[in-house]
Amino acid sequence: MKNFYITSTLPYTNSDPHIGFALEIIQTDVIVRYHKLLGEKVFFNTGTDEHGLKIYRVALEAGFSPQEYVDRISEKFKNLKQLLNVDYTYFIRTTDQSHTEAAQEFWRRCNAAGDIYKKNYKIKYCVGCELEKTDSELVNVRCPLHPNLAIEEIEEENYFFRFSKYQKPLLKYYKDNPEFVLPFFRFKEIIKFVEDGLKDFSISRLKSKMPWGVPVPDDDEHSMFVWFDALVGYISALGWPSDMKKVESYWPGVQTAGKDNLRQQSAIWQAMLMSAGLPNSKQILIHGFVTAEGQKMSKSLGNVVDPYRVVEKYGTDVVRYYLLREIPSGEDGDFSEKKLEQRYQSDLANGLGNLVQRVLTLIESGLLGEINYLKKFEKPEIKEFILATEEKYRHNMEEFRLHEALGNVFELIGFANAYTNEHKPWELVKDNPDHFLEVMTNLTLLITTTSFWVYPFLPDTAEKVLKSFGLTLQDKIENFDHKKLIIKKGEPMFPRLK
Fold it and tell me: CA 91, CA 45: separation in Å to the nearest integer?
């Protein structure tokens, strides 16, 4: 059995989850479920990034110790598993002792490679990004991502990582792996960034100024810079360095990340892996920002959409569907409840839900709730359409065009609805029972095929549809002949919104 490893980013615990990260973890879950359908053994990692100056300050302002604060916020991210129905394997916290030990060992290996040194420096620093900023990156002397936060000047002695050493090795790796970053326009951005030259960057802070971090090995005066420690979480989640058998069976893996993490994931982390003598990541899948009806959402600005509220109102699969269908996988997208309700009515209620309900009702009334699946009734043109659409679906899934793959699923649903309207099986049931059985067999094939394809996107919906035909995910209807399916029609899956 082939192993597959994928990790989301580890969201920063300075505030509650928002719909932007919900999109990322749902997209990751789609890839996970797709690979499971392919029969692969999947390890899906997510978790929380819990160190740094921003968290230290927010915790104290809220009247908590940093550990108390991150414990509370981390639990809300952990609970997204149930809220969004994401099938993660492991939830790492960067305050876990095992991760602390892994980050320190990673530091030692980079140091042994000659890539860590100490020097005095002075920088302009955005606490919101936890990153150094050049004058050219600022707008009106502020970070464009965190315009509500003043840029701070830091002057102290820190440890540095020799990022500049890895310009040529990174460019070679990019050349040798032309699909390393998807979508490709993001890959071109990072290639240009590296081609323009890399600067060594600070990887520690004085404990006297920032005590909330992983201790630097053999130096009690310094804590690790949050980015250095958090990135190690992608491999410490697998048990590195203590469980190398597990690490070697899964690593390298795929990472999903937002476009604001492009440099950290596809350049900084890759250089760190090279320094530590470890294989580079297999692939980086970049998604865009989610805006709120045209306005950029930001935890710092306090205008985020709460996924808990939206799921409570509409349901998990409906929210998953909207985010995955409406927002192109690698680009920015807009969250709008009005558009969500339009998608719900047109695609889910009138499209998929109506199709399933009509077919189940016809089998119940015309065939006494049973259909004897006979391959001789399968129409060649329908099989050809399914195979052609499946080829597009698989290609889009492999290329991280999840919104287009979901569109392929609804091509099949549209085809099935058109086929139903063309043949009018409600008229055939008495006048031409053989043709009625043929039409119902083909509709059963179309609906059950749709269920398997839609499963990565809408897992609850897919399982409900299959169950209504007496099937499970383990069944493959194309292998059936002379199999009796017992229909179990339930309530409509997508009732009209109130």
Answer: 6
Backbone angles phi, psi at 126, to 5 degrees: -100, 115
Q: In this structure, are residues 480 and 441 in contact, taking their beta carbons and an 8 Å threshold?
A: no
Report the SS3 class of residue 219. coil
The residue-averaged pLDDT of 229-239 equals 98
Q: What does the alpha-carbon distance between residue 443 and residue 361 come to, in Å, rounded to a whole number?
A: 12
pLDDT confidence of residue 156: 83
User: What is the pLDDT averaged over residues 128-152?
Assistant: 84
Say whether the peptide bond before residue 328 is cis (omega within 30 degrees of 0): no
CB contact set of 329 (below 8 Å; sequence gap of 6+): 27, 183, 285, 287, 400, 401, 402, 403
Block residue for tokens 């082939």: 2
CATH hierarchy code of domain 337-486: 1.10.730.10
Residues 6+ positions from 241 with CB-CB distance below 8 Å: 102, 105, 247
The answer to whether the CB of 264 falls within 8 A of the CB of 230 is no
User: Which band of pLDDT confidence, cut at 50, 70 and 90, is reported for residue 436?
Assistant: very high
SS3 335: strand
**Mean pLDDT score, 335-341:** 94
The pairs formed by 294-297 with CB atoms below 8 angstroms and a separation of 24 or more are: 294/334, 297/18, 297/19, 297/20, 297/335
Please determine, for residue 131, whether its predicted confidence score (pLDDT) is greater than 90.
no
Q: Where are the domains of the chain?
A: 337-486
Residue 257's beta-bridge partner residues? 286
CA torsion angle for 52, 57, 59, 64 (degrees, to 10)? Answer: 120
Task: Look at residue 458 in the predicted model and tell me its pLDDT.
Answer: 98
DSSP H helices, 196-327, are 226-231, 233-236, 244-250, 262-263, 269-275, 307-314, 316-326
What average pLDDT score do residues 120-135 get? 82
CA distances from 305 to 20, 30, 50 (A): 8, 21, 22
